[in-house]
Amino acid sequence: MTVRPIITLPDEKTLRQLSRPVAVDQAARRLFDDMLETMYDAPGIGLAAIQLGVALRQLVVDISKEPETKKPLFMANPEIVWESETLNVYEEGCLSIPDFYELVERPAEVKVRYLDRNGEGQELHASGLLATCIQHEIDHLNGVLFIDHISKLKRDRVVKKFAKAARLGKL
Ligand code: NI
Predict the structure, then answer these.
(1) Active-site residue flag, 137
(2) Which DSSP symbol is given to 12?
(3) What CA–CA distance (Å, rounded) separates 119 from 48?
C-alpha cells in the first residue's frame, strides 16, 4: 500500500472528469489499498479514485473513530438505488479542497448498490454521516464537488482563493 498525492483545487480539469466503470481485478484492489492508505494518512473519511488522478468508479469510506476498530468500505461502480425524501445537513469538507468547510443538505438515507473489494455485489442502507459521505464520494465519480451544492457566491470565492494560491506558488 502506498500513500499517493491527492489532487486538489485548482485542478478542476482532473477533478471534473467523469469516471469510468471498473472491473474489480488485481489492479483495482491495489488501487483500493492505495486509496485507503492515502485516506487514513490525510486523514479523511472518504476518498474517490479521481482524487488520485484515476478516473475509475472506485471509492473508499471509513467513518469509524479512534480507538474504534477501523471499518473500511470499498465500493466499485456504486449506484444510489433509493434515497429518502427527508434531508440532513452536515458540515462537509473534502481532501481536494483543504481547509474549507460548508453546510450541505442531502438525502438523510440512501440505499447503494456496489461491488465490494472481492467484486461481489452488495447493497447497503446508509444513514447519518455514512449516507452523506457516500453521496459526497459518488459525486466525485461524476465530476461533482461538494462546493457545487453551496451558493455560487461562496463557491466562486473558494475557487478563486485556490487559483490565486496556485498562482502565488503556495500550492
Ligand atoms: Ni471530497
Answers:
(1) yes
(2) H
(3) 17
